[in-house]
Write a structure and sequence with these properties.
By secondary structure, the chain is an all-alpha fold. It has two helices and no strands. 0% of the residues are buried.
């Protein structure tokens, strides 16, 4: 076995690493949810602001 790898005999030493992993996974999920929610709000504001320009652009593309 490689000398730089460390696998503890006492498996309870894995508990802090698992807890840390779970905390980071939950935090990453929350951040992704907030990004998604914010992106939807920005898309709505953009569409409301430039709705007339977007409609004109689509009509020009159809003709």
């Amino acid at each position: 076995m490689m000398p730089f790898l460390y696998f503890p005999e006492d498996k309870t030493e894995y508990i802090p690493a698992i807890i840390t992993l779970i905390i980071f996974m939950i935090a990453a999920s929350v951040v992704m949810y907030l990004f998604y929610k914010r992106s939807k709000k920005e898309e709505q504001v953009f569409n409301e602001t430039y709705e007339q320009s977007l409609n004109e652009q689509q009509q020009n593309e159809e003709n």
